[in-house]
Amino acid sequence: MRLNRILQGDCLEKMADIPDDTFDMSFADPPFNLDKGYDSYKDSKKEDKYFDWCSDWMGEMVRITKPSGSIFLHNIPKWLVQYTCHLADLATFKNWISWDAPTSPMGNTLQPAHYGILYYVKDESQCKFYEMRYPHKRCRDKKDCNLLTKDYGGKKHTIHPFGPLVSDVWTDIHRCKHDRYKDKHPCQLPVHLMERLVLFCTDEGDSVFDPFAGTGTTLIAARRLGRKYLGIELSEQYAKIAADKLAFEKTPSKLNDIWVSCYLNRIHTARESDISEGRPKQFKEGWKELFTNWPDTDDKRRDLNTSDLAFTKEVKNKISKLCRPKKKVQEDEK
User: Which CATH class is domain 5-130+167-249?
Assistant: First the structure.
């Protein structure tokens, strides 16, 4: 099957033509049935009709994912709870990822403050999984404060220089809020959220599938990280936006032969296996060379309480290019 493209049309019709066991990773971010303003889809089905529809495309997603593949479903908790019942006989549950993303008050209920991402695999004995790390959180006002927000007490010399392991609660990735860099789509995910998912269950050259491609976020993440991709999108307008954006993606998100996710001029997610190896853990030379003064002593690690890691000039320039908003790039090249 020809990959690295987006198909315009109904996802169930298009998935019917895809052979079994095709993709290494499948991700779905469907309409949430919240009456959002999509241009080609009415987001207000009766609840039983909505779940019947979801059951149909979930079954197809599982079918076309490889036995060694991973399946992710993004939605609000109300629907994810029902998804788990349907998927219980189709795949193996791994995690419910809670993504901290406050929304508008809904009345007569607790304030919604997270979305969920269900993580399933088809065959647990074959699936791929890589531990991930993200940078330590620090005070945002770096003029007066660059302290770690977590108090490590007398164990500052033992902290990991780059940052902690990624857990199943994600508070370090925020919703797309700046209109200048958003597309004309009611529900756009951050690219670095998708890059994290792609990194922890696929390898270079693997294939990624999204049946609700929207304006291309999943496909862009896959392309940046050297993966093949296929997307399906009902809206002709959204599919065109995605295709145009993909055409501007020419720089792989790779530093010293290490695939990384970058955001706000820093590495936002990296694999533990690309940072260190062995027991006791030894940091890899290719990783250490990204920084001007890698903290390889207890005293240097203590200093991380008040000063962040610094990239070499060459790496800093490359990260800046990777993080440059693509809409801005398109405007500059017109």
Answer: alpha beta
